[in-house]
């Protein structure tokens, strides 16, 4: 029994390792092809990661990626591809920032309100795709991509000064106004100018535990996973597929809405034109790399945060920091290929082993054999 | 005879011509059409082929018989180039060959008619035949001429301009055969060609095969129906557990001898001994009607008679007005009763199951389970209410193939004990119960953490049967419960159903295996085009009589005659 479990662990790790190694090798080849030293930039990045201030940045970015990747993973677990996490994240951050700036409540309530508004906005936006899919059969891939574009325009329109936007003195930037201090999520100051670890990062980690529990230990999670594994079997088992699609889209959107919270509550306290974008797209890769598993996603988020933050000084050494983008892109392809390879290999291997063990008489004792 | 025989006859022309009858002389010294020697194929988890030797004489019908899972299909896939043998040699017309794709096999004059037809429904027969073979005779008048030529030559009666979706199963099969002949096949492999046919259609097919044989073609015929094999074959090879265990002469062999060769032991019988039917109705269905959602008729319609244009037009009229998949179906199943439904596949059986399970919403009608109206109840509530379900396609509807066995044990019963408590799963209890099912239902597996996909079909099915029986169902839907299951598992599944019936279970049995239906059922109904058209007493009915009702030729109460019941299949 233990042998199968160990096998599964090794096979589980084989996919990501294969993907990372091959993407690393390919990146080195790209650097060689452009006539650059392939090892030096990587050495610089690792050295950068040794500085405390960069470490704080990496940890904060990890929390953001983690939440967004969980949002993507919820969809993936039931074969829904929510490409709209980015749009849901931006719209939710914007709307919750607006609401947060317009009210003043006692501390925890203020934060709770902002968080709730963010979740509801994200869920609302993804819910549109969910309803389109369940009622009209529109592919969520198409509708969420379109909703991303609509979200971009909607945010741009809402943030105009004639609507809800505020233009700070002597700045070209537009914001939604500053959230009062009661709506700031307390963080951990690392001192000596090293920066503050967002408090919401810990909420993100806690949500990873919740994600695991809901998916693996509840009826709802079982239904969700069953639907992802085989929609026809799930339907025959009594899962209402339409309701499941809508529910998981809403959950995914709510999590996407949360992924703006570390930045909003911990640092910017307003939504502005320079609020980070593209988080939702990177999160797709992270969820893939992390195999939709809460621990896997954590490591993948950490890796991507490292690539993002440790590469920022590469330019000053004469290396384009875009090489990390190349690496991230190659990881996407490598992940898809290597996971499929490992999956097929694992399935074949297990069938072989079962055949062997049965031939060797290793089957569990059956009643007949016991009585015989 | 060695494949390197010096004195072999020149191979026959690749495409037969109307006057070709005399051109290809079959004499004793001509090499065998196909000679397989020492074929071994190792396969993960399933029965492999092991040292198989078969010699197929030219111009004969050679039957290859064996139980489900004995390795017949694998062997034919090897011969057709879909799989490569690990060891052994293949010789065609005396020449040793190696195939790396079906293309190579086709070039050598080998054609295969698959069990599941590979036709495009929305194209005509002509279009289907030329599809992929455009280079042979073009796609126009020349191709049409060729098709009619072949059709006449072998008495296939194919109309090139009919739409395939309007054709019945038997006609579709003839199109498949024509497709293969059109590509110049001299050796035809037919994989379980009679599985989808009723007895009358089987006879028509056999006439076609004899026609092919008389023209010098060779037919390899895969089957596990012994009565049919004896009727049509010139030679018989028996395969058991992946290896050839013997050959038989159909002129002298009996079905019993063949069956024993095939199984290696005494045959199990689906016979139910004593009646346990009570007069307490468990499931009542009244006036259930379900219309097709779209206008396109996808389900095959059946015809035993040669196609006539008049029928095609009536079918078209029907399909435009939204064909009724279930037409006013009413039935009652009592506690302790097994009600069997006979019918050619695609006549509404699937829709009936889906309506009973709640997966399809009927237009009208009432379903009552144990006195409770469940017509508008969700699938999950119906399952909780005591409906067990052995689906016809276990891979699509019964299992999560890549999930471990214990998670598959939860599937369909996630809300019930021991799988969960108050919305939270109880993996420990579920695992323990899975171990019990594995033990009691003799599921052969090294453990409960392996994926369902790594079990053989029979063991997967036993797991499903065990799971469904574990929740003390009041009513069980058993759709083809022993399809693709080995003999040992088949007997165990029949036993499980019979045991539960004795304890008052009501069973709806749907099966393509007429012997299983007749042997297991207490009551028989025949379904044709969505209607229950006839009923019969399983004690007196014969498969032939049932077969004619399945084509719509007979209706009402079928009176069986004892004399005819002798010449059925062995099983």
Explained architecture:
The complex is a heterodimer of chains A (372) and B (571). In chain A, 71% of the residues lie in helices and 1% in strands. Chain A is mostly helical and 372 residues long. Chain A has a domain at 52-310: ABC transporter involved in vitamin B12 uptake, BtuC, CATH 1.10.3470. A two-stranded antiparallel sheet of chain A has the order 1-2. A 7-stranded mixed beta sheet of chain B has the order 16-19-20-13-21-22-23, sandwiched between helices. A 6-stranded mixed beta sheet of chain B has the order 6-7-8-3-9-10, with helices on both faces. In chain B, helix 15 (427-440) crosses helix 16. The chains are: A mainly alpha (372), B alpha/beta (571). The interface between A and B is large, with 43 and 50 residues.
| CATH architecture annotation name of one domain in chain B | 3-Layer(aba) Sandwich
Count the helices of chain A. How many? 15
Averaged pLDDT of chain B, please?
80
β-strand percent of chain A reads under 5%
Q: How large, in whole angstroms, is the Cα Rg of chain A?
A: 23 Å
Pfam family, one (chain A): BPD_transp_2
Membrane topology (chain A): Multi-pass membrane protein
Keywords (chain A): Cell membrane, Membrane, Transmembrane, Transmembrane helix
InterPro entries (chain A): ABC_transp_permease
